[in-house]
Specification:
The structure holds 2 protein chains of 2 kinds.
Chain A lengths: L4 E3 L2 E4 L5 E6 L6 E7 L5 E8 L2 E4 L8 E4 L6 E5 L8 E8 L9 E2 L3 E5 L1
Parallel strand pairs in A: 2-11
Antiparallel strand pairs in A: 1-3, 3-8, 4-5, 4-9, 5-6, 7-8, 9-10, 9-11
Chain B lengths: L2 E3 L4 E5 L4 E3 L2 E3 L4 E8 L5 E7 L5 E3 L5 E5 L4 E6 L8 E9 L7 E2 L3 E6 L1
Parallel strand pairs in B: 2-12
Antiparallel strand pairs in B: 1-4, 3-9, 5-6, 5-10, 7-8, 8-9, 10-11, 10-12
The chains are: A mainly beta, B mainly beta.
Chain lengths: 115, 114
């Protein structure tokens, strides 16, 4: 039973380019969460999605960031016009039910470097 | 809003020694508490969680933690560590029963030396 799969593992972008991060949840999981880990910081919640719905995006920066979880395929976190401050590790997590019934299962993360 | 403080950013210990990683939280409502471990270049793995009931929680790999409501603490302990326990440990809190948003501490790097 594969875990949460994220790709790429490492992503390098120049300032102004777009970054697309992909996350395939564990089999049978329909809830996806994105977290960001800045250097020397703990993880911070960004967005919570179910299939075709954004449930809570209160942790997402207001501009340049968007997320989707289509009916088919992985969840995508998209960052437009990246800046150096976007350099971080981005983690995806999934769960099969409402959170309080099951803990989050995290992927290995995508480490984004903006040059 | 809740917050999590991990008092030690780094904890070096020798193999087979006991260890305690400290975590304090602040919240005006009941919370769920978690410890996650992150090995180098990997994702987070759940060690243990406190939702309700017994305040002493046992997790994987011989770790345990005790919830102390009066001191708002959830310290992680292991009586005898192995070199393979070297990793970053994160304490996290969520508002009990209603919130999927985990608030993480900044982490404690546990280094086990031979």
């Amino acid at each position: 039973n594969a875990g949460v799969m994220q790709n790429p593992r490492h992503l390098v972008r120049r300032r102004g380019q777009e970054a697309r991060l992909r996350c395939s949840p564990m089999k049978g999981h329909s809830h996806v969460y994105w977290y960001r880990q800045l250097p020397e910081e703990g993880l911070k919640f960004m967005v919570y999605l179910q299939k075709e719905n954004i449930i809570d995006e209160s942790g997402m920066p207001k501009e340049r960031f968007s997320a989707e979880f289509p009916k088919e395929g992985p969840s995508i976190l998209r960052i437009q016009q990246v800046v150096r401050g976007d350099s971080a590790a981005y983690f995806c997590a999934s769960s099969p039910l409402g959170f309080y019934n099951s803990p989050l299962h995290f992927g290995n993360g995508t480490r984004l470097t903006v040059t | 809003a809740q917050s999590v403080t991990q008092l030690d950013s780094q904890v070096p210990v020798f193999e087979e020694a006991p260890v305690e990683l400290r975590c304090n939280y602040s919240s005006s409502v009941s919370v769920y508490l978690f410890w996650y471990v992150q090995y180098p270049n990997q994702g987070l793995q759940l060690l243990l969680k406190y939702l309700s009931g017994s305040t002493l929680v046992k997790g994987i790999n011989g770790f345990e933690a005790e919830f102390n409501k009066s001191q708002t603490s959830f310290h992680l302990r292991k009586p005898s560590v192995h070199i393979s326990d070297t990793a970053e440990y994160f304490c996290a809190v969520s508002l009990g029963g209603s919130n999927y948003k985990l608030t993480f501490g900044k982490g404690t790097l546990l280094t086990v030396n031979p």
